Amino acid sequence: DxxxxxxxxxxxxxxxxxxxxxEEVFNMTDLMEKLLFIAREENTRYKLNLTNVxxxxxxxxxxxEFKMIDKKHTYLIHNIxxxxxxxxxxxxxxxxxAIIENSIKxxxxxxxxxxxxxxxxxxxxxxxSDKGIGIPKxxxxxxxxxxxxxxEARTKDTGGNGLGLSIVKSIVDMxxxxxxxxxxxxxxxxxxxxxxx
Length: 197
Ligand code: ATP
Ligand code: MG
Known about the structure:
Elements: H1 2-6, H2 11-43, E1 50-54, H3 55-69, E2 74-77, E3 84-88, H4 89-105, E4 112-119, E5 123-130, H5 152-155, H6 164-174, E6 178-184, E7 188-196
Parallel strand pairs: 2-4
Antiparallel strand pairs: 1-3, 4-5, 5-7, 6-7
Adenosine-5'-triphosphate is lined by residues 102-103, 106, 130, 132-135, 143, 148-150, 155, 160-166, 189.
């Protein structure tokens, strides 16, 4: 509207309009990808592409990626020795990214986000911890519902549709795994994915 009303001669305005358009396109792409994922998952039995993946290496890649993109938080990865899991790498990556994106949105500047993993007997765990605003206990059981967001007032600046965790939950279910959320208001949140080896 700005552009069509004032034309493109005003440089400042054009810049502002372009940046709005860019942001909206990004949000719409993000939403569309999430809706497409849900639609695909419902209509077909999603065929998992399971391969043997070095889990710590995968996490190191994610760690480097976020360290580069997000300069507002400090990142920590626990020193972890090599083990393999039989997973759909693309989907698990998508799940980990969605969890870290939440940590970014709901953690104040300069605070820490920690990524780690651990191999147990027949399963392994991937954990993402943040020192963010936390989630009140009563909301935790509902977070996997589609479009569920905790109190719009606290999340109005962050954007989002409440789809991220519902998608993470389906990805974990497809792998016959479990997801756990531990959180304390004003202290932080830890999300644990427990996946069979
Ligand atoms: P989308 O992921 O679709 O962009 P979203 O981030 O709001 O939107 P979910 O990822 O499903 O949706 O998360 C649901 C709600 O859970 C969020 O709105 C937020 O209130 C709360 N939440 C999730 N992760 C965290 C976290 N690490 N710290 C605090 N609150 C969180
Ligand atoms: Mg999210």
